[in-house]
Amino acid sequence: MTLRATVAELVREFRASGRIVIVGASLAGLRAAETLRDEGFTGSLTIIGDEPYEPYDRPPLSKQVLKGWVPADHTKLPRMREVDADWRLGVAATGLDRATKQVRLANGELIPYDRLLIATGTRARQWPNPAEAALHGVHTIRSRDDAAQLQKELAEPPSRVLVIGAGFIGSEVASVCRELGIPVTVVERGAAPLVGALGGVIGEIAAQLQRDHGVDLRCGLGVSSLEGDPGGHVRRAHLSDGSAVDADVVVASLGSIRNVEWLEGSGLAAGFWGVGCDAGGRAFDINGVVTDSVYVAGDVARAPHVLYEYQFLAMEHWDNAVLGAETAAHNMVNLEPHYRPHLLLPGFWSGQFGVNIKSVGVPPFGDEIAFTQGSVAERRFAAAYGRRGRIVAAVTFDHGKWLEYYGKLIEQSGPFPPPPPGWDQPPDMKPMPAEFPDPRVPTAIPDVVLTGHAPSERTAEFRPRRH
Amino acid sequence: MRIVVDLNRCQGYAQCVYLAHEVFRLNGQEALTYEPNPDDERRLQVERAAVACPVQAIVIDRVDGAERGETS
């Protein structure tokens, strides 16, 4: 048999009877499993999840579930096909031994694999003081159980809710509280809500939006401690300026932590920012060498992106979980040169205070912003982010139909400020500083050079979305 | 039945809201929320909404519920 024939036989054999283990039973894990079966993998498939539930969708948890419209257990993800897997739900993976190719579970079991997909995602950052975090009425919101419990308490209703942190989740929770008629105080360390994701200019608009809806918004402040009553229920929060807020429900929305602890000692490039991998989802080891048997997808993956100077990006975006999982799964059962890149133009959405906020690209990569369409006063607008004369992102408030226009410009490394789309232009389109809290130090890189697939061209080829 | 709307794709055309208003709702001008697990009797409505969606953002399950033994 020729070498080529032998390799082809090995691939056939792996697809027929290999063992694939997916750690993480959420959006990325499920879509990866479905893709593996779609691609003809008929070997054994094991899916490990630390929660007892089959894969469910998280975005509704902070919106329609909290509002009480949809029960928390109604968010199970639709199935595109049977995945015929051995599901290990309610048991966490606690270790990875790459030498013997085994995943260790919390119950002591060892699960052998030929190829492994890491899709363990993130968890909510808890309120740092454990005694205060344990008070009744103190919540984070990431899981189905979190949302169900918080919804129950909001329905009672509380006299006041305190939201700590005005990122997307915090702002959405505050929005739901106002819709339910519950008084809400939001305390944010930064200068404005959403400032980390969208910068200070948009943050000011988001701040006004909150205040117009009756949110008691306090920026530039921290919460120094939470105080409970003798029954162990939270009643008051003390702020860094010496003031206090009485509240009987507290929601800590302090961002997320990547679930990488179980990979300690595995020799993979796993750490605070996620698990490093190439654009095809193949994990790097601690020396930066790509592995052949371990893949990564979803929130926990961190891969270089052609559009952003090959910086490693970890994206907690719904789209990234779906498309990253599909790419990794495809590559798990194929050989080079049939590997696919995961070239996603990042994007996210948030519904809050009756406004649809959407973004495309990576706003914090930009340092300037220009309003390009609509009216800020009416909170219906589009704005573009630029860096060194190039458009790198855009954000819209109730202007979602225009995102595609900006997305195309970003993919093509179009100019900033972008050419006017020829409709609905605001009087002032002059760029201004985008005011991100931690402005990046200018680097020695003279210009953004997009090499993509053809180094001579300043474009990247994007894989068309499938479903 | 189970559905999910790809809200990256959704552009707030609201066709789904007209066709299945118990399942899809607009919160404001274009922020869509929906019931991800509507009653099976709404299947026809939801399927019509999915077909009518100009950006094809509504994903409907193709297999019924959980597989056997899944929650072991």
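qc> Chain A has eight helices and 29 strands.
qc> done
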